[in-house]
Amino acid sequence: MDYLKAFVVGGLICAFVQIFIDKTKLMPGRIMVSLVVIGSILGALGVYEPFIEFAGCGASVPLLGFGNTLFKGVKEAVDEQGIIGIFSGGFKASAIGISCALVFGYLGSLFFDAKMKS
Questions:
Q1: What are the sequence ranges of the domains in the chain?
Q2: pTM above threshold 0.85
């Protein structure tokens, strides 16, 4: 049942964002940044953690979850280091995800040829 909840919630998030990309004139990059910011705000309001407990990876994997992870990292670092934690907390909390994205993106570029959309 956990897999089904994660699949449905993650799918709904992705479908909503895809519809938003298709129906607005906003650039996809701006929409993606907005998702990270919204995830941070929802994390700060205490709304996103219960959502993650309900949906599991369906809520933690999309960009909303990345924003929540950044917020949690900054919050923990500020509690430990003070104001300097604002600059280091997000990097520390998201380092593994960003590193994996870079490594797998590079590996993907070795095996596949990029093509421009026409």
A1: 2-111
A2: no
